[in-house]
């Protein structure tokens, strides 16, 4: 019998409320135990959604509802999100047990170091002794997420503030664009400052420069220099996360038309780009289809 259908039928037979087309919210329906080495708590019931936290093997979560398609809405610590039932043994309030799917491979989360130098400590706080250091661009396996702003790795503990979560199969430059997009998301809300190139304030080209420098692929500093000198051009209809997207608006052109760009951002998928905005004075999302569409002059892929 199909596992997902079996889980649904078991819940229905137990007389428990499911979140269906009624949209009615109910109290928690039970608990679950993580069976994978580590399991992602996601923002939505999809493997493509953002990771909110990582739960280690044996962690117990509260099951709020069956989200359908093999996913559960759960609470882990202070955070609520979604986990795949493939790696959860669910115990309902009436004692019914829904085992994790058999024959699946456990998830393994990896992290990319974004700080120039990141201290590895013997415990999850800055008060613990420094064990060693890691350089920007280093990829580490995350053993556990205690949920307190720190990740446990094989050699100790590192601050989650300076780690960008990447796919389990991430190795480096083969997924450079994905890593760049992930880092750009980690910098949302940082201040726009003319001439800023990180780590806490940026101008448009300084943001791109900082991200790729941290990933071990330094690029030129100015937007027009990046347009001329770095990567290779790709069609704007075929952009992938991490691609640089360039704009020209004569109202902001101080070169008299001699330079090709006045602004640059990073495409991050789903028709959105991240940039250091000169109007809101912060790093933020915007759509390529709205206000900015008429000003796009090209896109380039780094790597």
- Share of residues in helices: 10-25%
> Helix/strand/pairing class, anyone?
mainly beta
Query: Counting H and I runs of at least 4 residues, what is the number of helices?
Result: 4
Q: Which fold name is given in CATH as the topology of the largest domain?
A: endopeptidase fold (from Nostoc punctiforme)
**Mean pLDDT value:** 83
Number of domains: 3
Segments where pLDDT lies below 50 for 5+ residues?
1-26
Strand line-up in the sheet with most strands: 6-5-4-1-7-8
Order of helices and strands: HEEEEEEEEEEEEEEEHEEHHEEEEEE
The CATH C-level class name of the largest domain: Alpha Beta
Radius of gyration: 22 Å
Shape: globular
> Termini separation (Å)?
46 Å
CATH homologous superfamily of the largest domain - what is it? endopeptidase domain like (from Nostoc punctiforme)
Percent strand: 35-45%
What's the total count of β strands?
23
Q: In the CATH classification, which architecture of the largest domain applies?
A: Alpha-Beta Complex
Major pleated sheet: 6 strands, antiparallel
Description of the structure:
With 303 residues, this protein is mostly beta strands. It folds into 3 domains: 3-98, SH3 Domains (SH3 type barrels, Roll), CATH 2.30.30.40; 110-171, SH3 type barrels (Roll), CATH 2.30.30; 174-301, endopeptidase fold (from Nostoc punctiforme) (Alpha-Beta Complex). It contains 4 helices and 23 strands. The chain has helices at 3-13, 176-186, 204-214, 223-229, and strands spanning 30-34, 38-42, 51-56, 60-68, 71-76, 79-84, 88-92, 97-98, 110-113, 117-121, 130-135, 139-144, 150-153, 156-159, 163-166, 191-192, 201-202, 232-234, 244-247, 263-269, 272-277, 282-287, 296-301. Strand 2 and strand 3 (51-56) form a beta hairpin.
């Amino acid at each position: 019998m199909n596992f997902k259908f079996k889980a649904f039928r078991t819940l229905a037979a137990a007389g428990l409320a499911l979140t269906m087309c009624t949209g009615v919210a109910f109290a928690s329906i039970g608990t679950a135990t993580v069976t994978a080495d580590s399991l992602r708590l996601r923002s939505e019931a999809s493997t493509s959604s953002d990771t909110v936290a990582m739960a280690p093997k044996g962690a117990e979560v509260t099951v709020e509802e069956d989200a359908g398609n093999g996913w559960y809405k759960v609470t882990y610590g202070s955070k609520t999100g979604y986990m795949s039932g493939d790696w959860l043994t669910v115990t309902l309030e009436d004692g019914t047990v829904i085992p994790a799917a058999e024959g699946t491979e456990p998830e393994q989360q990896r992290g990319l170091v974004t700080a120039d130098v990141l201290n590895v400590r013997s415990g999850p706080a800055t008060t613990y002794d420094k064990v060693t250091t890691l350089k920007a661009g280093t990829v580490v396996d995350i053993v556990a997420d205690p949920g307190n702003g720190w990740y446990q790795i094989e050699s100790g503990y590192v601050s989650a503030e300076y780690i960008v979560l990447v796919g389990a199969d991430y190795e480096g430059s083969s997924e450079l664009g994905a890593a760049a997009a992930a880092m750009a998301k980690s910098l949302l809300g940082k201040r726009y400052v003319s001439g800023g190139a990180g780590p806490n304030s940026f101008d448009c080209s300084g943001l791109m420069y900082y991200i790729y420098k941290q990933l071990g692929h330094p690029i030129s500093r100015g937007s027009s220099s990046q347009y001329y000198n770095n990567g290779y051009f790709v069609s704007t209809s075929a952009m992938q996360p991490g691609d640089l997207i360039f704009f020209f608006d004569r109202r902001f052109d101080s070169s008299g038309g001699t330079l090709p760009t006045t602004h640059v951002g990073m495409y991050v998928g789903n028709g959105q780009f991240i940039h250091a905005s000169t109007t809101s004075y912060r790093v933020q999302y915007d759509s390529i289809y709205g206000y900015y569409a008429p000003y796009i002059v090209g896109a380039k892929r780094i790597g």
